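hey so u asked for the seq, here:
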Amino acid sequence: MGVSLQFVYGRGSAVSASAPPRPQFPTRATAPVELSKTSISRSSCRGLRRYVNPPGWASRRNASVRVGGVGADEGEEAGAPDWDAEMSIFKKRTLKPSQLATLRQIEGEASIGKVLHSNSDLVIVEGLNNDAEPGTVVSFASGARGVLLWRRNDNICFILAFGGTSTITEGTPVQCSIQGILQVIDDEEGVVTKRKFETAQIPVDDVAGQIVNFIGRVKGSSGGQEDKGQKIPLLHKSPNMEDRGQINESLFTGVAAVDTLAPLGRGQSMLLTGLAGSGKRDLMLEAILGQRKSDVHCVLALIGEEEGVAEKLRALLEDKGAMARTTIVEAPKGSSFGQSYLAICTATSIAEKYRDNGGHSLVLLGDLAPMVQLWELFTAALVKMGPQALALESGDEEKLEKALEEEELVQYEGMLVSASAAQRRQFFAALIQRASKMHKRLGGGSLTMVGALAGEPATGISKRRQAVIEQHKTLSAEMKAKLLAALAAKEKLAGLDPDADRRRIRTEVVEEFMSLTDGQIVLEGSRDTDSGCMVVNSAASVSRIGNRAYDDVLAPVATPIRTALAQADDAQRASIDDNGDDINRALRARALLLQDLQQPVLLEDLVVKLYALEAGCLDDIEPRRVRSAAGMIVQEFRLKHPEILNEIRTTRNLSKDAVVVLKEWMKAHESLL
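ran it, structure tokens below
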């Protein structure tokens, strides 16, 4: 079966005169499409018979010869071929398809959607083409343009309109912008057409060391030069399983607590959560500084920050020597939820550029809250238009709650959830699953993702402590009430009061992101008072990649420390008594993992410190002096055995002989402090 391809239609659109009346959409100025036309004369048809001979042609031809006084004309009437059928077959096989006919066919099949709701820059549409994917550019009959953000299973589409929705009203026609038409000419079926929709693209040339806006344009540039450079889709599909490789290489961040308790593997997705002021942005900055001498390109999405913050961060990173391999994507305070979401997508797409070229990238999404709020805005609008609208209009909240509870349940990833919850989960997963380690046949590149969300997981600490108080039968009711009040005051002081942080995301949503990512880093509500450093919650933070996310040199010593911290935390929660060797040892371990801001720890230094803790060199040191004592140990060891530190730095491993030397040195220098 022979197949040939022909691209017959470029950017622009055409409306067939024979098609039914359709809304007229503004189009870009394009050169007219030249239509090919082939004419065949009657005299040439006989010469072409040999190309289109059907079965039995020879016998029918012989029948036209004069036999027994019968003329050729009579013979042709008796057994002449069907010329119309033969010419139809001939045209399918040899003639170029009519471009005009193709355009008419495409115009007849193009779906015209209808606006159901518009507010700010967000639009809800129904009736768009089923084959249009997120990232497709759409045109409104009013002249506005937008990008398709998400398509629900019921063909309801969420769109971000460029320039606002002032010209878009309910009922406004909308259609996907067709970039071109691909024709496939098949020997048997003839012409088959396929549409290619226009997709939103972002410029990616020379973005290293730059600050760009939510659609990838370098801040302060005119945009003319960027339009000529390389562009990539704004909304990529996540790689399929066949294109992914196993995550088996560590991405060392330079944040001691993260690299010890919840390590990052190249290609992993990680949620970073904590309340306002817990240090999420500082941790991300520390991770960028930790890549100064690595092969990892960093992309930071700054969401909702004050004007000027991006410039200050660039100056800091330039001063530290880390900006050359970093790109900052900015959606400052005052940006809409849609623009903030596009900034998240732009940062991810820039990181994908390095991954797809065989390199390694780390994308740090400063705040995922706009993604959650965007979905909630769309959902609230749908509720007002749907069956639950009557309950909202009448103010019957109980009726509305019941209607939502009775929503159809569907099975999704082995769970029975409401249809709306399944849709939301798919929307979140579309972003999270773009983090990946690619198969070696595709270059073996990686995109590691860390997304921040203001909130906290469901820890149940308050309930457990309340249960402990209630168990004491010797306490009076008045005393129990005072203890519970003191507990509430302590949690509020630590930043656990829901009213204290308006940007805080519901625990339910935080838990949903945790279930989608490959692990989470949970920050305590308050920082360390001495260093001002963020404090990682050792019990709630975890990497679900396992030991494959550790550097080989770190796994043997970091895993036991993480286990000991988790056991000490459980023991402390179950008992009112805070004394004990295990708990004191845990306090020293937590103190060891603290570090000053903007001073990422080196891998070789962290390894020596953890071996010192394991060897008991810090057992007699007060927790507040642990960091300085560990620093002295590293300095002394560097003077005596620089070759071992160099081995760790260059190979990210330790030979058996080096491990023996390290442990013996620790044992011989227990009295150093």
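The longest strand covers residues 178-186. The domain at 552-673 is CATH 1.20.150.20 (Lysin).
lmk if thats what u needed
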